[in-house]
């Protein structure tokens, strides 16, 4: 037992040695390759798309002929996804290679960008900004893919205005179980269009997405406001969320059960004096963003500054929100930032690829990563619950409007309702953390008519899962598209007994 405890201690507290001297150099090589890929997108992606579709269809028809008893999934390995879960199901399903990661076109006239599902935010956003455009909901982790945001879910600090990521998507291209290519939108195959988000690849293989684009501006004028007590945080968040005229972005970081910093932002081109108050937080030597935000809490001052648009979008990427501090505890020290900050962050894919079974087990025992989507009026009650059961800080709070619909996740009423995403990432500071606590939290969210993101899986049973997510239309579409025995159900892919 002592040897086991010592091994755990070393793996948890000294993993930074391996990360700094091996993973960070590998990350740099990956970034160099990404720059090369970016320079080629306009010449190749559109031309190769049709050829890639034919290849996917050929694989599906081969499976239908030779292995019809095995349900299908993409061949993308588990370590390449952003989720910490090890997706064991890929080992017994029939894997289809769906390698689609380019930009097909940018249509400035109709304000649409057409992309393949494997393209990441880190590749798409810089190209759009250079062209004078951006997407309404830009996620803050560079390695998140468009397909993952559609088939899973994604929201950001502009979601109080524009909703969940998929609401900016106006058209999907899908290959079905029999190999047919279909198009769905608000006017064509509308029921499939509504059912596709959050379906985790269980209706077909997503091959292209049309996303609305809006004009990009140079900066985000960001205001920091420290707030004391959960009551004031909740009431102030509701006020700022409803002020759509002045607030393009709204975000709250809670640093303990009584104190947090509310941030509100407006996209702007600035004026002639703006440069004097620009904070280029994306530069490698700059402090981690959540630490920068905390400085306004420590000094108890309201602050305001201009942040370049791209830097703002990826403000949490450098420190992987605050996860990197558990791997490299001294990563925010000025000496480290100036000497090695340009190597950060380590690629999540490489962190996962090099995890031993022991490290995976330790993460499962000592680590919690999850997002819960709850009515905005439950902020105080929810944070108090998470404080008692997890005691993880900071807590990320991001408002998002949920609209009525017939898909798996939507407003429970016939009108728009404001929710908040509460993100909890880190090591619980409670004495006995285990799977029972996680299930208890899921039931707590279910009772409040909330939702949880499923990237980490669920301990809900199938009936509870179907209570949280509306399966009525989804089940009809699965039958219509012949998904039974060809694709697993959503629950089969997110059930923790299968995934972990």
UniProtKB/TrEMBL annotation:
It catalyses: lanosterol + NADPH + H(+) = 24,25-dihydrolanosterol + NADP(+); 5alpha-cholest-8-en-3beta-ol + NADP(+) = zymosterol + NADPH + H(+). GO terms for biological process: steroid metabolic process. It comes from the Eukaryota. SUPFAM superfamilies: FAD-binding/transporter-associated domain-like. One of its GO terms (cellular component) is membrane. Residues 99-216 form the FAD-binding PCMH-type domain. InterPro entries: Diminuto-like, FAD-bd_PCMH, FAD-bd_PCMH-like_sf, FAD-bd_PCMH_sub2, Oxid_FAD_bind_N. The chain crosses the membrane at residues 16-36. It is an enzyme of class 1 (oxidoreductase). It is found in: Membrane; Peroxisome. Keywords: Membrane, Oxidoreductase, Peroxisome, Transmembrane, Transmembrane helix. GO terms for molecular function: Delta24(24-1) sterol reductase activity; Delta24-sterol reductase activity; FAD binding. It is a single-pass membrane protein. Its EC number is 1.3.1.72. Homodimer. This is Delta(24)-sterol reductase.
């Amino acid at each position: 037992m002592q040897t086991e405890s010592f091994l755990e201690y070393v793996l948890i507290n000294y993993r930074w040695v391996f990360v700094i001297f091996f993973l960070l150099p590998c990350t740099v090589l990956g970034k160099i390759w990404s720059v090369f890929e970016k320079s080629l997108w306009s010449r190749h992606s559109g031309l190769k798309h049709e050829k890639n579709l034919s290849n996917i269809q050929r694989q599906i028809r081969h499976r239908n002929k030779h292995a019809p008893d095995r349900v299908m999934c993409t061949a993308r390995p588990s370590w390449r996804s952003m989720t910490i879960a090890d997706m064991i199901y890929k080992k017994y399903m029939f894997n289809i290679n769906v390698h689609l990661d380019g930009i097909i076109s940018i249509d400035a006239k109709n304000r649409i960008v057409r992309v393949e599902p494997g393209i990441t935010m880190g590749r798409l956003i810089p190209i759009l900004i250079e062209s004078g455009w951006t997407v309404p909901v830009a996620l803050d982790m560079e390695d998140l893919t468009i397909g993952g945001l559609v088939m899973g879910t994604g929201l950001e600090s502009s979601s109080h205005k524009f909703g969940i990521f998929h609401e900016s998507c106006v058209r999907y291209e899908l290959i079905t179980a029999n190999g047919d290519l279909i198009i769905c939108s608000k006017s064509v195959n509308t029921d499939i269009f509504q059912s596709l988000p959050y379906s985790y690849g269980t209706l077909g293989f997503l091959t292209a997405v049309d996303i609305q684009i809006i004009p990009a501006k140079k900066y985000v004028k960001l205001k920091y406001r420290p707030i004391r007590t959960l009551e004031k945080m909740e009431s102030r968040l509701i006020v700022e969320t409803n002020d759509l005229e002045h607030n393009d972005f709204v975000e709250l970081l809670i640093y303990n059960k009584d104190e947090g910093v509310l941030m509100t932002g407006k996209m702007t081109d600035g004026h002639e004096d703006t440069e004097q108050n620009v904070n280029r937080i994306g530069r490698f030597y700059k402090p981690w963003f959540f630490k920068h935000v905390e400085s306004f809490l420590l000094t108890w001052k309201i602050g305001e500054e201009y942040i370049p648009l791209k830097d703002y979008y990826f403000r949490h990427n450098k420190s992987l929100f605050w996860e990197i501090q558990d791997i490299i505890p001294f990563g925010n020290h000025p000496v480290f930032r100036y000497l090695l900050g340009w190597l950060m962050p380590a690629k999540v894919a490489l962190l996962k690829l090099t995890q031993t079974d022991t490290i995976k087990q330790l993460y499962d025992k000592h680590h919690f990563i999850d997002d819960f989507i709850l009515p905005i009026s439950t902020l105080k009650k929810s944070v108090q619950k998470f404080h008692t059961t997890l005691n993880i800080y900071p807590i990320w709070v991001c408002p998002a409007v949920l609209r009525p619909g017939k898909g798996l996740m939507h407003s429970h009423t016939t009108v728009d309702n404001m929710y908040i995403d509460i993100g909890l990432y880190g090591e619980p500071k409670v004495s006995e953390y285990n799977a029972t606590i996680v299930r208890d939290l899921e039931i707590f969210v279910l009772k409040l008519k909330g939702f949880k993101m499923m990237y980490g899986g669920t301990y809900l049973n199938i009936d509870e899962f179907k209570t949280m997510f509306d399966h009525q239309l989804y089940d009809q579409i699965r039958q219509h598209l012949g998904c039974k025995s060809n694709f697993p159900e959503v629950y089969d892919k997110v059930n923790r007994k299968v995934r972990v």
